[in-house]
Amino acid sequence: MAGIFGRIKQKLSRAGNKMEKYQEAITFAEAGESEYAMETMAEQKEEQVPTKLLVMGRESTFSKEIIDYALEMAQRMSYDILAFNTAPLSCETFKLFSSSHNQVCEEFKSMSEKNAALFQEAAAEKGIHFDHIVMFSEPEEALESITKEHRDIAFVVSETVEDRSESRIEEGERLRTNLFVYSMV
């Protein structure tokens, strides 16, 4: 709970600093110091960090639905995309099997990068900056780690994992992918 209030306090502090810079620029512009006002506004633009949309893949893949949704949202909101894949295992787990230790992790990383390449191409076509991360931990732990490292994440987009897809098909329901969007306050 303290983390949420800390983030809110941080955002309010940044907003207050921006308002002070704008007020300073307005004051100097009104006093006839337009060059100084323009410099102040240029500094303000340099300080702005692009906001990111974090897209959580399902293990080593990204579904067409999540790619389409993330691209549309990133384009509409002028966000960069930070995509990540996570494997719920530690490469340290395979130390006992020295021959497969690096192989399993490298194969997962390779598959993830291959699948993310299609996502990256689609983002490039739309002029959206794209980064990709692969982590070896539980999805919740990976999400926590990434949000600590990248403080400029505005939203997280993820999809559900359907556990009972076979029974739903037998009952005549269409298989669908649900997407979830979380705001990072």
Report on this structure:
This protein is α/β, with parallel strands linked by helices. Helix 1 runs antiparallel to helix 2. It has a five-stranded mixed beta sheet, sandwiched between helices. It folds into two domains: 1-48; 49-183, Rossmann fold, CATH 3.40.50. The radius of gyration is 22 Å and the shape is elongated. It is built from six helices and five strands, in the order H-H-E-H-E-H-E-H-E-H-E. The longest helix is centred in the N-terminal third of the chain and has 29 residues, at 2-30. Mean pLDDT is 78; it is low at 163-168. The protein is 55% helix and 16% strand.
The H-level CATH homologous superfamily of the largest domain, spelled out, is HUPs
Integer tally of domains? 2
Our estimate of the beta-strand percent is 15-25%
Structure classification:
alpha/beta
Question: What's the overall average pLDDT, rounded?
Answer: 78
- N-to-C SSE series? HHEHEHEHEHE
What is the gyration radius calculated from CA atoms? 22 Å
Question: Got a strand count?
Answer: 5
Distance between the termini: 12 Å
- Large-scale geometry: elongated
- What's the main sheet like? 5 strands, mixed
Q: Can you count the helices?
A: 6
The CATH architecture of the largest domain comes to 3-Layer(aba) Sandwich
- CATH fold-type name of the largest domain: Rossmann fold
Low-confidence stretches: 163-168
Strand order of the largest sheet: 3-2-1-4-5
The helix fraction, in percent, is 55-70%
